Amino acid sequence: MPDLDSSPPRIVVTLAAPEDADDPDLQRRRNDRYADAVERHGATAVRLTARATAAEREAAFGSMDGLMISGGADIDPRRFGQPVDGSTDIDEARDELEAVAWAAADARSLPVLGICRGLQAINVFSGGSLLQHVEGHAGPAWGSGPAATHPLRLVEGTRLASVLGPAEELEVNAYHHQGILEADLGPGLRAAAWADSSAGPLVEGVEAAGDGRFVVGVQCHPERTESTPDEFERLFAVFVSEAASA
Fold this sequence. Notes:
The protein is α/β, with parallel strands linked by helices. The protein has a single domain, classed as Rossmann fold. It has helices spanning 24-39, 54-63, 92-107, 117-125, 159-164, 233-244; strands at 10-14, 44-48, 66-69, 112-115, 148-154, 169-174, 189-195, 202-208, 215-218. The chain has a nine-stranded mixed sheet, with helices on both faces. The longest helix is centred in the N-terminal third of the chain and has 16 residues, at 24-39.
């Protein structure tokens, strides 16, 4: 936890704009989950969508202590050198926002946490690619029924395993139709968790190789606490602590 005598760490949380969603109220509730996940551990969440002005972006990136890239629409496959082959609901404006946010965080070696799309963004911005469609892996959309779940296997010796362990396997929710195969992994990243799928084993946890900077992504949605193991609360706590020390 951050020092209570110091200012709360400012974590930029990139989000889908409710104004552009089919159901703005549902998108606001989704966004609240991400912000709440860091605020309950003592951080200040700085919410940022693709509708933010240039001045708002500059102020947010200049004052941030950490970056959370949240879930949402698919990343444009052109960013990893592929034609559209299964990607849907592409959000180019958000891709651009998060590419700049990633670069700003990278330039200052700030901690980054990616959730679902955020894990995929970390991989793409690191030079990796994506499997554009995984059949039968998404399950019901949030708010439309019980979450699909599957086992997540943690890789021994990784930062993610040290945070979520001692269990070697956890049951996590699944709200995605894209994934990362071993061959898709970006340079400088390592697999921290795996899950089985119809396309074969998927990398569902990534992190920066080595023991330095905190860069972690998870394919599941731990902010949705009703379908998430309690161990993931430690991931948010560690992320906020890293931001407080940045």
